[in-house]
């Protein structure tokens, strides 16, 4: 073998390697859709052991505290959240959820939520959505409700606090009917 054949073989090898590298770059592009959200969903504020006051034209609309709150661009997340407010009849209402996601006036509780009202009403639901402005809780999964002699359980509760309206599926329990004062 002479020197020309060896150098031609080396040149051919490296030119082939170069063409293979350029071809792999051009023909095997990465799928960037899997990485497009990285770094965009970062909380702008993170507060530990927080206490939150929502003030409106009423003296005090809502007080909440918890172990941690994260504020993102379009929603908030709260952990170990305990909140209380006054309803339209001046009764104190308390809420507890291990995790809440707040988007505008709706609070999403995917793990569980417990609602206690000053008049003795206690509601626990597996998960659900509470509309703060309309005062409507729309639960998913199992729920338990007690108040005075009423002891009720079932699935998928819908509870409108303003109208004192309750609806659910597979209801089971005892219900105390209100006495008619005009009798």
What does this structure look like?
The protein has 183 residues and is mostly beta strands. Helices cover 14% and strands 52% of the residues. Strands 1, 2, 3, 4, 5, 6, 7, 8, 9 and 10 form a 10-stranded antiparallel beta sheet that branches. The mean pLDDT is 86.
Overall number of domains = 2
- CATH homologous superfamily descriptor of the largest domain: Lipopolysaccharide (LPS) transport protein A like domain
CATH architecture of the largest domain: Sandwich
Low-confidence stretches: none
Shape: elongated
Distinctive features:
183 residues, lipopolysaccharide transport protein A fold, 2 domains, ten-stranded antiparallel β-sheet, 1 helix
Please summarize what this structure is.
The protein is mainly beta and 183 residues long. 14% of the residues lie in helices and 52% in strands.
Strand and helix map with partners:
Layout: H1 3-27, E1 45-54, E2 62-71, E3 76-86, E4 92-103, E5 106-109, E6 113-117, E7 122-131, E8 136-147, E9 150-160, E10 165-174
Antiparallel strand pairs: 1-2, 2-3, 3-4, 4-5, 4-6, 5-7, 6-7, 7-8, 8-9, 9-10
């Amino acid at each position: 073998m002479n020197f020309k054949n060896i150098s031609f073989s080396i040149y051919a090898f490296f030119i082939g390697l170069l063409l293979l590298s350029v071809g792999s770059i051009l023909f095997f592009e990465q799928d960037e859709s899997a990485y497009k959200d990285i770094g965009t969903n970062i909380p702008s504020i993170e507060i530990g052991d927080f206490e939150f006051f929502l003030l409106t034209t009423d003296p005090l609309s809502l007080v909440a505290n918890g172990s941690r709150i994260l504020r993102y661009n379009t929603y908030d997340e709260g952990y170990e959240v305990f909140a209380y407010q006054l309803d339209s009849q001046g009764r104190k209402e308390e809420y507890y959820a291990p995790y809440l996601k707040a988007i505008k006036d709706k609070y999403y509780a995917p793990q569980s939520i417990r609602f206690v009202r000053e008049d003795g009403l206690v509601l626990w639901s597996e998960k659900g959505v509470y509309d703060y402005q309309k005062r409507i809780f729309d639960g998913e999964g199992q729920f338990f409700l007690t108040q005075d002699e009423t002891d009720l359980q079932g699935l998928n509760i819908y509870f409108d606090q303003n109208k004192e309206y309750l609806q659910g599926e597979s209801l089971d329990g005892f219900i105390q009917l209100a006495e008619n004062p005009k009798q």
